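Q: Can I see a sequence and its folded structure?
A: Here is a first one.
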Amino acid sequence: MLEYIVAAAVAAGVAKKMTSGASNAERAKEKYYKLEAEKAERERQRQEANNVARQQAAAKANARRQAEEQRRKAMAESLNQLYAKFAICYYVALADGKLAEQEKAELDRLCLEIYNAFPQQAVKSELLKIYNTPDMNFIILEKYIRNVDPAVIASFLSLADETAVLDGGITDREKECIYKLRKYLTDKTGYDYLNNHMHRDANLDLQCPGCGSNMKLVAYDNTAVCPYCGHITYLKSS
């Protein structure tokens, strides 16, 4: 009987140890899976954080590129306007074939003003290219004004008028240069920039309402005058 009890106790102890061992193994297994899950979650969070950081960095880089592109575009637009401005002044000043002392002084001032605003070798080279053009004509001038907003070009008309009288008066050639510029703007926009600058060679057949004689168009003006009775008619270019 004693042997039976001892054997039963031993069997119970073995079973208890086996049960305890199995529980420990399960707990160890559960702990392992839990650690692996936590590790995987940390890795997922790390990758997500890296993705967010990369996206933010890409967004910032793209914003910088766009800002730089806008800056370059604005700079190019400003330079094109200034080149057009300088070219217009040079075109009018050189209309008589040579530069008067006052005209040269004003062109030097304007050239230096532009270069001081954009002190770059490329800007200096372009300004000198314009300044050293010996036969500046409207075809050459148009290369500088065609890509500039006509409203900006129109804002230079008063400067063109001022340039024309720097040497003490305005000549027919200077008037013709200004006429061509105004004609260009009129054709480009449909707005009448010619109201006081009609071409001297315009083909107009006007009859004087006073005596019936043919009237003469005043050069680059908006008036037609009768050479016989003196009647003046004010015209509007079309």
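Q: Show me another, different protein.
A: A second, unrelated one:
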Amino acid sequence: MLVKCWDLNGEKRPKELCYKAPNRKYYSCKSAYEKVQERTKWKNKCTAFMQEIMGYEQDMKLPTSWYKFVEEFSSYGFDVIYDTLVVNEKTFRWALETKTFKNDSHALNYFKAIIQNSIMEQFRQKKARKKADIKEQSSPCIEMLEISAAKELGQTAVKGKNLSGLVGNFI
């Protein structure tokens, strides 16, 4: 029997090869379901944050242009959009207090322009943090292996690193 996989835009696959989520929908695998859940969580956080800034209650909907905007910038990741919102929170609050907007859509358009102008900076910072985390996690082990191999070969440098002080400590 074929079932529709929600993470594959409705592509049909054999039921035995799919993961049935608690919401009774089928996904290609459990990790795909978890990825969709994570994405939805961040998307909801973005909307809730903007609702709070605009003074909306939880059950009230923002203008549809907000949802289209968020989807348009989803390629950056909803966590990056959320970080951009948090960084610019004071700017949003200041604008609501000092500027006169015709309606909520006008205010949201103003906020969207602010987000558009600062989202790339947040994206770069996230990328740099990820790169630093990866380097930090892998660096000590790899460096110790390089030192061990260099010591066995009688070398005093590995990839431009001076090992003369370190090799003496292991002898």
